[in-house]
Amino acid sequence: MRMKYLWLLTIMLLGYHSIAQVVTVRANKNRQALDLVAVYSPSIDVGIFTDASGHADITAFKGVTDIQFSSVGYHTITRSYEALEANNFRVFLSIEDISLSTVVVSASRWQQSSRNVPNKITTISPKEMQLQNPQTAADMLETSGMVFVQKSQLGGGSPMIRGFATNRVLLTVDGIRMNTAIFRGGNVQNVISLDPFAIENTEIVFGPGSSIFGSDAIGGVMNFYTLSPTLSSGQETLVTGSGTMRYSSANNEGTVHADVNIGLDKWAFLSSLTYSSFGNLRMGTNGPDEYLRNTYAARINGRDTVLANPDPLVQVPSGYDQYNIMQKVRFAPNQKWDINYAFHYSETSSYARYDRLTRPRRNTLRSAEWAYGPQIWMMNNLNINVYEQNNLFDQMTVRLAHQFFEESRIDRDLNNPNRRTRVEEVNAYSANVDMEKRMNGNGRLFYGVELVYNAIGSTGSDTNIDTDVTVPASSRYPDGSDWQSYAAYASYQYTATDELTVQLSSRYNQVALNAEFDNNFFQFPFESADINSGAFTGSVGVVYNPRDDWQIGTNLSTGFRSPNIDDIGKVFDSSPGSVIVPNANLNPEYSSNVDLAIARTIGNIVKLDVTGFYNYLNNALVRRDFKFNGQDSIIYDGTLSRVQAVQNVAFAEVYGVQAGIEVSLPSGFGLSSRYNWQRGNEELDDETEAPLRHSPPSFGVTRLSFNKNGLRTELYAMYNGEILNDRLAPEEQGKEYLYAIDDNGNPFSPAWFTLNFKAQYQMNNGTSLMMGLENILDERYRPYSSGIVAPGRNFIVSVRTQF
Q: Measured at the alpha carbon of residue 681, what is the angle toward residues 675 and 685, in degrees to the nearest 5?
């Protein structure tokens, strides 16, 4: 009976068509269909994108005189509806290697030209993604050359932006914040839950984004936009998709991916599935001996044994598996309504916390086990878009989302039968209403409201592996605690002249936190912690384009981060000899930032850009020595440990420069380079200053590319500067096991560079072949603050088919 109704519904949907006017966009040179071309009109504030066949329904643009067609790497053109009709609704775009204009949506949650946005924004396009072919979303961010990525283990990737990381940078997926109330000050690996094969576009906003995105957006915002269901642009059902198989040698990775889109005229369905298996990672042969994995712990015949590693270049254990599922449904009954539902699910196997397994103690290893349990992320997202000009808005988007996160930590000391397990679950609910309204022709008003609610579950248990007896133990966080955020924001963009644009933004945020502490395991000096505080943030930005080949912009912005459950309630052995305890007396931290950016193109051949920034963080939430019930040290897990807690006791500052150059050379060649330099400091208890932990060394990438007749190649170098011992943050100086040792016997982070090559060949049948050789010189290096050594020489091959 159910199948009967399903077939009936399918027949009804296939027969439900409407008359639409479709435009086709192709490349001028090879007539190849172009997808993701932004079709936009500033006069009616309507924007859409072409589908995989280069088609877009422009019925809503009828009679409009300024329809813009814009795509990265192509000249933007403007046509009237009448002119398109005269040319049989065909558009051809010419290649433009160098441009100051792209279409971005991250600065205001709505489409804008980057020429009118005061924020520093970089994008990672699908074309770049296909060539670089990254293993994870963290590796994808690293390919931009503007984001530094730390890894504590192979199953990780903690982005650092302008000296800030973890709970001071914000992740969003399709406009939904991914940060939760247990995002910690240490390194956060949640970005690996995202499937790089299901990401359509990535935009990175540098500097505070709190006036639009709220708490945590101090260093920047990383916005990931996943594949979108595509409607049919004609009478026939549209069926498109792709499949990918990939192998890389450094960790014997095998990945398979498939996605398929079924588009009707009003309904579309998109499914995506990816499975990856990663083996133990092999490091390079040329580098510091301190990085070698000479021994590892194993359980043999019921006893912990430290074994000699037969191949010290192999990091044992580091492998894991992961799969990602995405299902989307789109319903667009008419030109005014567009409704999208998305389901995301990601799960990893258990994976070793590699850096903790290398910690020494008394000439042997400290830990016999240290692993993260399966990391699970699930999201249900309902997105409703309304296009209707009225007194309140021209466009409105409503986002309703539920996310579920699960993570766990399992550790056991060497020759100790007690295995500690801590499990955390977060249910995150959010609702956003975003509206856009054109004001008096020269102004655009973006405004909205947001509600966020996080419910935290946290449990602990200890198991004696000899007797198999499990007993309750202290949890990592107060079980049953919650974190809430309520906000309203407005942003106004005013085009004073063709050359001058001003953007003003403001947001008010009210944050509430409730936590009840369990005194069964620790006698806390308080029973609960409650925070209810508000924060005003804002920004003022100016963009001046004196000519088409010049752009000058400045942006003054403020940001904030409200204490979360991790700040206020965590009990966890943070490092050998110290323990973090809860602190109920915390307030938000605030940042003030200034950017100055200059960009210029020279004859559409050369593009130069440089951005200077300064960010001051006041009332900073940092970990410092503390007293618990009047004691500066307590016994924790049988060890006398120094007491520490997160406190509002310091300031931090970060300043630096981001610069880039792009050169279009003859015969399909191109040259580009990106360089980042920053310096971060924070105040210590004695009012002296010390290096900021998440301020990485200078880093960058230089690329020589070739693109002609379906062949793309890229020879590139990635490089990092060194951090000497006196520039290591205090908490890093005590981690000798992670660093190389200098001539004075002190840990430091050496400079390094890698030489790499990628090639992609596009066949006419929609199949592309990609081959790569990373770290050609087989360098042995460990990126700053990372716990695992980077891959050695790595051969990559993949096949991708589109239909």
A: 165
**Distance from C-alpha of 693 to C-alpha of 784, rounded to nearest angstrom:** 10
Name the DSSP letter for residue 249.
T
Q: Which two tokens stand for residue 375?
A: 């990391």
Three-state SS for 185?
coil
- Sign of the Cα torsion 305, 306, 308, 314 reads positive
The percent helix, strand, coil of the chain (3-state, each to 5) is 10, 55, 35
DSSP state for residue 213 in the 8-state scheme: H
pTM exceeding 0.85? yes
Query: What's the CA gap between 351 and 765, in Å, rounded?
Result: 39
How many CA within 13 A on the CB side of residue 756? 24
* Rounded Cα gap, residues 311 and 262, in angstroms: 49
User: Which 3 state secondary structure label does DSSP give 768?
Assistant: strand
The count of C-alpha atoms lying within 13 angstroms of the C-alpha of 331, restricted to the half-sphere facing its C-beta, is 8
Provide the 8-state DSSP code for 94: P
Q: Decide the pairing of beta strands 199-206 and 148-150.
A: unpaired
> What's the DSSP call for residue 51?
-
Nearest to 395 by CA among 334, 336, 330: 336
| Nearest to 213, CA basis, from 535, 598, 543, 673 | 535
Cα–Cα–Cα angle for 645, 138, 38, nearest 5°?
120
DSSP 617-629: EEEEEEEEE--BT
pLDDT tens per residue, range 234-288: 778 989 999 999 999 999 999 999 999 999 989 999 999 999 999 999 999 999 9
